[in-house]
Amino acid sequence: MEKCNVALYGCGTVGRGVAEILLGHQAGITRSIGRGIRLACVVDKRVDELRKLPLLAGIPICSDLEAPINDPEIDIVIELIGGMETAGNITEKALKAGKNVVTANKALLANRADALFKLARQRGRSIGFEASVAGGVPIIATLRDSFVAETISSIFGIVNGTCNYILSRMTDEGVSYPEALAEAREKGYAEADPTLDVEGHDSAHKLAILARLAFGINVTDNDIYCEGISHINPADIAYAGSLGYKLKLLAIGRIKDDGVELRVHPTLLHRNHPLAVVDNSINAVCIHGQAVGEVTLTGLGAGAEPTAGAVVADVCRMALGVYQEDFRLLPVFGGTETIHCIPQEQIETKYYFRLSCMDRAGVLARVAGVLGEHNISIDSCIQQGRAHQDSGYVPVVFMTHRVKEENLLNALREINSLECIDGAESVMLRVAEI
Predict the structure, then answer these.
(1) Are 260 and 254 in contact (CB under 8 A)?
(2) Which of 11, 120, 159, 229: CA 20 to 30 A from 105?
């Protein structure tokens, strides 16, 4: 039986998971797809370390980036090195050499997908990237295959397990952000430097990929408004919870008449929505289609096993020639249109904001006056407790009706300058309208 030969670039946590599946489940893979998959070599700079692993006994291991690409026996290159420059060079050279590529590199695709997809199409090759978004949740396959005839109007995603775990701990136990982050590190959910995750950049990379498939548009992460969770206060999570909302870091894409909204930020969801109950390190993506309505997919979004499983699934599709046909025929892998991205200040939605107000008569009337001047309508206003005896200030929480963000920001700047408001304590959060 003909076998498909694979070169694995990068043998870290996910790479070893891929090797375990390819080496430990060969019979099952062959039975499922009718063709064998052979791990022909591993490329990694830690050659001596990897040669000591029983898992890789008998597998050629080298640090030469060029050799497998130039080997005519190699059919598929799996790129799990990460980063931009080296990974991009490997991907380009592999495609030009007639190899198909499988990658989990969301940063690379968020910035260079258009050029790389066009190159793959020109060479009659393909790029598999199911593992780049939400790990074991088959969101890429769903958008590419199941929704190929669907008109998608919006997509909302919890696509970073680190942030979801941190916010879950802050919600359930009332712990501070630093405490929750420390717990995430202990459990292996957060990197030593968690900036990419907690400041929203990882989610923005994934949203750029999802937007291409969902809306057929060409965007990069630079087109996406991005705000992280490091400034979140447990008090606001609790106040919002008393109003029926839960806080999540959402990646939001929505097609509008005048362009597309693309944004990543902490977002309040009504507690009855399916995304609101997705906790800990679980990922979920909610899609709205013209015919299908609302569909939500949930599952493990990170970790060696689910991510490695998604990589191997792409390898199998390529061995069957399915991905190559997708790249040859589907417009999202060829030329996609560039669309106007609506600036964040022009977004219209509902908002939560908290002010630290002096506990005296007439303060709320002054605040209401400023809001009225900026055409902001208040849905509810609740004073949270009594004034602290030392400061004389009391937290007051407001929920607005739909308003343009620019109007609210201008109003808050004016309100925070009032002598009866402690502007340093003001907080604003957006509310999802799903």
Answers:
(1) yes
(2) 229
The count of domains in the chain is 3
Residue 79 CA, distance from chain mean position: 19
Catalytic residues: 206
Identify the burial level of 149 via C-beta atoms within 10 angstroms of its C-beta, where 0-12 means exposed, 13-18 middle and 19 or more buried: exposed
Which class for 158: exposed (0-12), middle (13-18), buried (19 or more C-beta within 10 A)? Answer: buried
CB contact set of 186 (below 8 Å; sequence gap of 6+): none
Task: Note whether 297 and 142 are within 8 A (CB).
Answer: yes
Q: For the chain, how many residues are written?
A: 434
Q: What is the DSSP letter of 221?
A: G
Output the domain CATH number for residue 125.
Answer: 3.40.50.720
* Spans of the chain below 50 pLDDT: 1
User: Is 107 part of any domain?
Assistant: yes
**Measured distance CA(234)–CA(413) in Å, rounded:** 23
How many CA atoms does the CB half-sphere of 353 hold within 13 Å?
Answer: 27
- Give CA 312 to chain center in angstroms: 21
Nearest to 35 by CA among 2, 6, 75: 2
Tokens coding 81? 């090195």
163 plus 296 within the same structural domain:
yes
In this predicted structure, what is the pLDDT of residue 391? 67
The reply to whether 319 and 396 lie within a common domain is no
Query: What pTM was computed for the model?
Result: 0.95
Same domain, 252 and 265: yes
**Residue that the structure tokens 């509310």 belong to:** 431
DSSP state letters, 107-163: HHHHHHHHHHHHHHHHTT--EE-GGGSSTTS-HHHIIIIITTT--EEEEEEE--HHH
What's the CA gap between 166 and 188, in Å, rounded? 12
Q: In the chain, what percentage of residues exceed pLDDT 70?
A: 98
